[in-house]
Design brief:
CATH architecture of one domain: Alpha-Beta Barrel
Strand content: 15-25%
Oligomer: single chain
Radius of gyration: 31 Å
Length: 634
């Protein structure tokens, strides 16, 4: 007999329970929607990180101009996150460069477009850009990819096939190159089989012979201009006499090109069409007729085009496909530096950028170009010329204070004019020029020098003597050979030499030896904090918290304007950029105040520094970037 089952109790809604249930269900729905939204955002981020959804769209044939404008070629050494090295541009600065070219109408062209331009007489868009990145670095591809996609730009990635076998993680491997090609934003090119240096001498004419990039970078700071690329000359001894016959030289050159050919065909299935001869600007294909003929033979056999020069940006139809030219922008170039170079190479009517327009209106630009960005005033000179601008606010100041960071490169002139007439015929000028602090006074067009001192002397830095610098060079050179020696015995021998040289006494400047001055390179970075007080007939200057020994008496006492200036200095040199004739003077956090010596009681006439909420946001961004950089460098 079945037990009688008791039916379940009826659900009874207690007071308020129905509202609680509705509220709970609503929270569940909100949570589910939020979770789905978060998952969608994460999916988008992952897809953007690992997949390319955009496709490069070439310029339309209708965009080609009936008039022949040629094309410009720009080549960057490489890209990294911050751009604080001597060769690699930061990703944000690269974006600024390329975005401005895009804004001014430049479109990228392909290798096939160049060949059709020369071989089929097909015209190009009026502002055609052939873009390259050299050395085949992995970080270049990582940081440039998003920029290329956003701007619809296509570029050629140059590589050294020798790097493939070494499997160096800093460089792109064949599988990476194939993925880049598949993205449609990249083509492949080559810098040659390998990067190697021959006939290397230090600046004291000590013969170092052949150096690979690792040894070369260790001793770079002690080199002058006497070195060459592997394919540019005979291999020579310390007296400059060839150590190989012409036949041996030809075999050596042929080996590099055959290795290049074989590796590319095996790894990529083809030989890249674009070749860049390292180093450029030799006159033809090498430093003498036999080496030039050997290189030319192989270049013409393997490649349909060759970039043979650096410095000039424009290529026209009357150029040779084997003598093309490119310009290599440097990491420190302001946007207007890039535009200035292109403008005067092409005669195109380019528009210089001004940056912060509200702040920019405070300045009357007289010559060159001026951009205000990130608390800085960037004055870009004319080629082999100058730039200067007048502060319009407080144009009739007499006594004043100026506080600024001067961030332009060490070689070049960065000038602050005080109590100046509109034509600069009367002024007091404080300038940092070629690593020297210089004060001059001009009256009725005649200039006299009030103060001159080398910046290292002002800052109390130890200046080595020529013998000390020569000794340091030899120590470093032996350490470089020891680090990459072929055997422990050889390394021990080099280290022993380094130690012996280090312990050899030499004359210092205090002993009466000649101080080491050094040759100036216009790539040398510099940053100094400059504070100026002008009161009546006395000028007081502090540089990096070091006060000059005494007040400087001045005669110009009338009220006048403040000018900022910059000028190119033609005596500088660079082994890798032979034709850069533009200079950027950079004044960061430039502030003019008047009033008492007590900073709290001074009135601000002008400042480029952020204030208020904008300042707080900017400082937070700076801290975050420094923190990221610190973690990256760990």
């Amino acid at each position: 007999m079945k037990e009688k089952q008791t039916p379940p109790p009826l659900a009874v809604n207690l007071p308020g329970e129905e509202n609680f249930t509705k509220k709970k269900n609503r929270h569940k729905r909100i949570r589910v929607v939020a979770e789905l939204l978060l998952l969608a955002i994460m999916a988008v981020i992952i897809i953007n990180l690992f997949f390319t959804l955009k496709t490069y769209i070439p310029y339309a044939s209708a965009d080609a101009d009936a008039e022949d404008h040629g094309f410009i070629a720009i080549s960057y050494f490489g890209v990294d996150r911050m751009g604080d090295t001597s060769t690699l541009i930061g990703k944000d600065q690269l974006r600024r460069h390329l975005a401005e070219l895009h804004r001014q109408g430049y479109v990228t062209i392909s290798q096939r477009d160049i060949l059709d331009y020369y071989q089929q007489a097909k015209n190009l868009p009026p502002r055609a850009l052939y873009l390259m990145f050299e050395d085949g670095r992995r970080d270049t591809a990582i940081f440039a990819q998003e920029i290329m996609e956003d701007l619809n730009f296509k570029a050629t990635m140059m590589t050294y096939p020798e790097k493939f076998a070494l499997n160096d993680p800093k460089f792109l491997m064949p599988r990476d190159l194939r993925e880049m090609e598949d993205s449609s934003f990249w083509e492949m090119g080559t810098n040659g089989y390998r990067l190697e240096y021959i006939n290397v001498f230090d600046r004291y004419n000590n013969y170092l012979g052949e150096l690979d990039p690792l040894r070369f970078n260790m001793v770079r700071s002690y080199l002058g201009r006497k070195y060459n690329h592997y394919l540019m000359d005979y291999i020579r001894d310390a007296d400059g006499v060839p150590m190989e016959s012409e036949r041996h030289m030809k075999d050596r050159v042929a080996y590099d090109y055959m290795r290049l050919r074989d590796i590319y065909e095996e790894e990529l299935g083809y030989i890249p069409m674009t070749h860049v001869l390292m180093h450029a600007n030799t006159g033809k294909f090498g430093n003498n007729a036999p080496i030039s003929a050997a290189n030319e033979r192989w270049i013409r056999e393997l490649f349909p085009m060759n970039f043979n020069r650096e410095g000039f940006v424009l290529n026209r139809r009357d150029s040779s496909l084997y003598d093309l030219t490119r310009m290599q922008p440097q990491p420190y170039w302001a946007i207007n530096h890039l535009l200035m170079r292109i403008k005067y190479d092409t005669n195109e009517d380019l528009e210089f950028v001004t940056g912060d327009r509200d702040n920019r209106r405070a300045w009357d630009l007289r010559e060159g170009a001026l951009e205000l960005r990130d608390e800085s005033l960037l004055l870009t000179t004319l080629p082999e010329g100058r730039a200067y601008a007048r502060l319009q606010e407080g144009s009739e100041l007499r006594d004043l204070n100026i506080d600024t960071y001067v961030d332009g490169n060490a070689f070049g002139a960065q000038q602050i004019y005080l109590r100046s007439t509109p034509d600069l015929s009367q002024s007091i000028c404080v300038s940092l020029v070629n690593n020297v602090l210089l004060v001059q006074e001009t009256q009725q067009g005649s200039t006299r020098e009030l103060y001159r001192e080398k910046i290292p002397v002002i800052l109390g830095e130890t200046i080595p003597s020529v013998p000390e610098d020569r000794r340091d060079a030899m120590v470093r050179e032996n350490e470089a050979f020891a680090r990459y020696a072929p055997s422990p015995v050889s390394a021990e021998e080099y280290l022993g030499r380094a130690e012996e040289i280090r312990n050899t006494p030499v004359e210092s400047v205090e002993d009466g030896a000649e101080p080491y001055e050094g040759e100036q390179s216009f790539h040398r970075r510099s940053s100094h904090h400059l504070v100026i007080h002008l009161r009546d007939n006395a000028l007081t200057i502090t540089l990096d918290d070091v006060a000059l020994p005494q007040d400087i008496p001045v005669q110009v006492s009338e009220r006048g304007s403040i000018f900022l200036g910059g000028s190119w200095q033609g005596e500088a040199w660079s082994q890798r950029n032979l034709a850069d004739d533009v200079y950027d003077a950079v004044f960061r956090k430039f502030q003019v105040t008047v009033g008492a010596d007590d900073a709290a009681r001074q009135r601000v006439v002008y400042t480029s520094e952020y204030t208020g909420w904008e300042k707080a946001v900017h400082r937070a961004e700076e801290i975050w970037l420094k923190l990221v950089e610190w973690f990256i460098k760990l």
